Structure formats: C-alpha cells, structure tokens
C-alpha cells in the first residue's frame, strides 16, 4: 500500500459515495486507475466493503454499555463468539487481556431493554459474572485515518 492508496482510502472514509472520477481528481489519477486500486484494496482485504453509517440513537437504540465478561474455566474466543451471536443487542465483542475473557459492546432502546439484554447475557451457560459500564455520552468516534501527513 502506497501514499496514493492511503489517500484513496481517506477519501472513501470521508465519503464512500464519492465516484472514482471525484476521487481521481483529488488524488491525481484517472477514474479507471482509482477503480483498479480500489479493486486491489478489496481483493487484499484492506477494504472490507462499503456501507451506510447509521446513527443508532436515531433508530431508537441510544442506550449502550460495555460489559466485561468473565467465563467459567478456559473458554475459547470462538465459543464465546458463538454464544454472543444470538443476542441482537451485542454490536461488538472483543477477546482481551487482563481479568476479563471478553469485552462486549451492547446497544439497547432503553435502560430497561439494556437490563433485559444484560440478564440474557448473564444467562449464557459459560458466563460466571459480568461487570457493566453504561455509556453516558460519546466523546469521540473516529474512523481510521490511513493518510500519512
């Protein structure tokens, strides 16, 4: 990946609806050259796809929490993931170092919905205990910035 690729990615992060022509003008390439580079970035997995960014609060899912998950015994990340997939309130989950086995990001429509989601999470057979932190406000939400200064 070179500087041109980084600049193309920056343009796509800023506005994924930009045309190849618009991106080309910004980075000094033709539209077909931008398309070839974008295709290569997709093929190599640098770009995983294109999507709309939705405000969860606008959809009524503005309550969120981060939950430390502590499991009984040695549980693999794949097994944890498999048990979390059926819970629609789980929007992300991470295996981590430290005392917890995983950190789970939950989103819900209300504090009562969040409480219900936490109870269903705690009911998962391998989970021993959880430690929850409810988000009060989002201070920073930054996409990756591939462009090098």
TrEMBL record:
Residues 1-62 form the HTH asnC-type domain. GO terms for biological process: response to amino acid. SUPFAM superfamilies: Dimeric alpha+beta barrel (SSF54909), Winged helix' DNA-binding domain (SSF46785). Keywords: DNA-binding, Transcription, Transcription regulation. GO terms for cellular component: cytosol. Gene3D superfamilies: 3.30.70.920, Winged helix-like DNA-binding domain superfamily/Winged helix DNA-binding domain. GO terms for molecular function: sequence-specific DNA binding. It comes from the Bacteria. PANTHER family: LEUCINE-RESPONSIVE REGULATORY PROTEIN (PTHR30154), TRANSCRIPTIONAL REGULATORY PROTEIN (PROBABLY ASNC-FAMILY)-RELATED (PTHR30154:SF45). This is AsnC family transcriptional regulator.
């Amino acid at each position: 990946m070179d500087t041109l690729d980084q600049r193309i990615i920056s343009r796509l992060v800023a506005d994924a609806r930009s045309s190849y022509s618009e991106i080309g003008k910004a980075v000094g390439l033709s539209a077909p050259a931008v398309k070839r580079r974008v295709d290569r970035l997709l093929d190599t997995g640098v770009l995983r796809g294109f999507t709309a960014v939705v405000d969860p609060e606008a959809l009524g899912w503005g309550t969120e929490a981060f939950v430390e998950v502590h499991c009984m015994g040695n549980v693999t990340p794949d097994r944890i993931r498999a048990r979390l997939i059926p819970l629609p309130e789980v929007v992300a989950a991470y295996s981590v170092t430290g005392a917890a086995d995983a950190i789970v990001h939950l989103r819900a429509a209300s504090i009562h919905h969040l409480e219900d989601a936490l109870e269903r999470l705690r009911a998962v057979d391998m989970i021993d205990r959880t430690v929850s932190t409810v988000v009060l406000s989002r201070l920073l939400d930054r996409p990756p910035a591939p462009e090098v200064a």
